[in-house]
Amino acid sequence: MSLVMTDLSHCAVLKAVKQQQATTQRHLPDKRQVAASFSKAAASYDSVADLQRAVGSELMSRLPDITPARWLDLGSGTGYFSRVLEKRFPDSQGIALDIAEGMLHHARPLGGAQHYVAGDAENLPLRDASVELMFSSLAVQWCSDFAAVLSEANRVLQPGGVFGLASLCVGTLYELRDSWQAVDGMVHVNRFREFDDYQRLCAASGLQVRSLDVLPHVLHYPDVRSLTHELKALGAHNINPGRPGGLTGRARIQALIEAYEAFRQEKGLPATYQVVYAVLEKPAAV
């Protein structure tokens, strides 16, 4: 599918985007719950963050050859990639921003950025045209208003500035989702946007799309408990609206284990993440 929709007027595109966005927002978690969940996971996050490291490294490799005077690590978490950015751009000034204050408290003593800011990607506490590079790895999938994220990126980037992001789309953890569906039909797995939504929103953002694609990343686990333990340690366990409350009984857990076994491969039980990679650029001033 083309990244630029040529068969609809601009107004029609915006209307379609808003309709899709409204549907998506009803199914995404409240940002206060996101902040609380990741703050709680700050101490355990790095011990199980293999996927996050792999995805962030891939995103880093996709950035164009630029030397920003100031960069922003959006959704900086424990600051791992703030430290990578500091090494890549040693003469630049860095801002680490996250909605989870617990993550910032954990990251600050480890260094990497000059400024640590508690803030919301949908309403950045930064001046217009104040950064040359925005880097965001596996954070914006938790934002219900991705159009607002893109609008804020357009606002805070200098002309010619770059926004590199990695996110997740529908199809992520489908093995776990389908296994739970076979057990009770309830929402146990976080929902994510369709890739088409990313395409439409990026095309309508006013930013130039340098690249936008989705790649699967598959991890393997010896058993279901290892997967669910890792999700909890990451703070990425189910925080969707409509999730079941209370404890999960032994019978349902056993049923989940049996259902998931149908997916077993030689390497173990697979967990597929559909990772969206995008590199966007603010048009240069004329």
UniProtKB/TrEMBL annotation:
Superkingdom of the source? Bacteria
One GO MF term attached to the UniProt entry:
carboxyl-O-methyltransferase activity
Record's signal peptide? none
GO terms for biological process? biotin biosynthetic process; methylation
What EC number(s) has UniProt assigned to this enzyme? Answer: 2.1.1.197
Asked whether the keyword ATP-binding is assigned, the reply is no
SUPFAM superfamilies membership = S-adenosyl-L-methionine-dependent methyltransferases (SSF53335)
Reactions accelerated catalytically: malonyl-[ACP] + S-adenosyl-L-methionine = malonyl-[ACP] methyl ester + S-adenosyl-L-homocysteine
What is the enzyme's class at the highest EC level?
Answer: transferase
Q: Which residues form the Methyltransferase type domain?
A: 72-163
Magnesium recorded as keyword? no
Q: Which UniProt keywords apply?
A: Biotin biosynthesis, Methyltransferase, S-adenosyl-L-methionine, Transferase
Q: In which pathway does it act?
A: Cofactor biosynthesis; biotin biosynthesis
**What NCBIfam families has UniProt attached to this entry?**
BioC
Similarity comment text for this entry: Belongs to the methyltransferase superfamily.
Q: What does this protein do?
A: Converts the free carboxyl group of a malonyl-thioester to its methyl ester by transfer of a methyl group from S-adenosyl-L-methionine (SAM). It allows to synthesize pimeloyl-ACP via the fatty acid synthetic pathway.
What protein am I looking at? Malonyl-[acyl-carrier protein] O-methyltransferase
The organism encoding this protein is: Pseudomonas abietaniphila
